[in-house]
Amino acid sequence: MIDSHCHLAGDKFTDDLEAVVARARAAGLERVLTILEAGDPVEAGQAARLEQLWPDCRVAVGVHPHSAGNFADDPGRAADYVQQQVADTESARAVGEIGLDYHYDFAPRDVQQAVFRAQVQLARRLDLPIVIHTREADDDTLAILREPGPGELRGVFHCFSGTTALARAALDLGFYLSLSGIVTFNRADELREIARTAPLDRLLVETDSPFLAPVPHRGVRNEPAFVARVVDTLASLHATTSAEVAARTTANFHRLFRP
After folding, report:
1. Using CA atoms, how far apart are residues 83 and 122, in angstroms rounded to an integer?
2. CA–CA distance, 121 with 125 (Å, rounded to integer)
3. For position 191, what pLDDT does the model report?
């Protein structure tokens, strides 16, 4: 198994990172993809520590839409930060998480769009996949992804919890959908139906640790070992085994991120 999206470089894992890694490996995880906020020296330092503990781990680097306002004067500067950190980080395999968040609107929407667009263009130039965060911004997210540019654009809608229409649009663009612990929640019937009908060769699994712990771990800090619960749920939805889902989603991760 691979946890395709977690935040092990965050402060929630500073005190027991070694134990978290040990539990993940004991649960059968091959690796994780850890998300780094571009230009954050604390996260970069913990990512280096993680790499020592688990050399197979990989990272994605991006400017989150919540931080887009820091680049309001020059959105292209966000892409410059990402490009430099990717160049300096041997384990970097993606640009992300990037996108639009109109739920919180921590940055003006036009600024979010400009920063997102600059990073999408960077990913095209670097031939790297993107990890997308989109919340209440479906139309604008898709519009930016559909803009022409050099090279191939590929990536994943992380922690997918959107509509059937968004899922279809993402798949039509050639993107993957990543399912988190949300798919185990009692009220997630619509999401489970999307997960059931999506082809297994276009799905990834993640925890988004430390957030969104799956059933039966609700109310505690999430961690990569818990991704097994997402795998089990997908296996039930696709009427197959957890081993098959683990193998298929791992192959999908390798195809997208080329680790």
Report:
1. 7
2. 6
3. 98
